[in-house]
Structure formats: C-alpha cells, structure tokens
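User: Hey, my collaborator sent me this sequence without any context and asked if I could get a structure. I don't really work with proteins. Can you help?
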Amino acid sequence: MEGVAARSGVAKTTIYRRWRSKEDLALAALLEVIQEEPKPLRHVGGTQTALRAYLGRLIDNLNSKLYGPIVRGLISDLGVDLELARGFRERVLARRVAGIRELLQRGIDRGELRRDLDLEIAVDLLLGPIYYRLLISGEPLTSAFVDRLVRAVMAYGR
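Assistant: No problem. I've predicted the 3D structure and written it out in structure-token form, which is a compact way to encode the shape of the chain:
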C-alpha cells in the first residue's frame, strides 16, 4: 500500500479509505483489466474455434506481467477472506463461467455438442486445468495446451 500511495502521490490513508486491504486493491486492479476484455467471440466459426479464441485470450492475460501475478496473489487469500472470495467469484470467475457457458450453449444449439451436455462439468473441465497449471503445477499455459484442452472437452461433449 505504501508503494501505491507513493506512486499515486497521495497519503496511505487515502488508499485505505477506498480499499480495506492490499487484496481489495489487487482485486480492483484485476477488475480493471477484465473490464477491458472483449466479450466471448460469437462469430468466429464453430464452438471449438470460439472456445480456443476465448481461452487463448484468458491464458494470454494470465501470462501477462499484471494479470497473472495478481490472480496468483489473490488466490491464497480467498480461503481466509470470505468477502474477498465472494467478490472474486461474483466479479471475476462468474464472468469467465458465463462466457464459456454461452459458447457451449451455442454449440448445443448448433448441434455441435450433445443436448444433455452437463454445462457445469464442461466449464469445470475447461477452467480447472488452466488454474491448476497457473497455481499448482507450474506447467506452461500455451496455445497448444488450450488446443488439447478444447479438443478433449469437445470430445466429451459429442
């Protein structure tokens, strides 16, 4: 918080008046980045192509100098700060889930995925491995990984 106050030219108390903790400030910064992201691409071809494009933008952000480190830093606090966890789920994760659900539903409507596809599981199958790599395994988040991930979920959905 001291660094933010110094760089912005205001007192630390001014920063604390707006954000109760450095985690709240980090969430606000993350939300600022997310607001600049485009909506899921609806007209880029089939569902597989659209999912690749959407998840490709997500991993590009996670690999960036700002977004990825903020997410990594926040995740450890989500288990102990219920207000922060709620804000992250409602304002960050819900946006991701809604975008993917929209693309999957479009795939169902177009006959590319089966009608009885469990959307909740399909979303988890797409997002879970990305966050697992980001936070636990440390394996790289690459476009090749996204391609494999999307192909696997599309096979599950057929």
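In plain terms: The chain is about 75% helix and 0% strand. You can pass these tokens on to your collaborator as they are.
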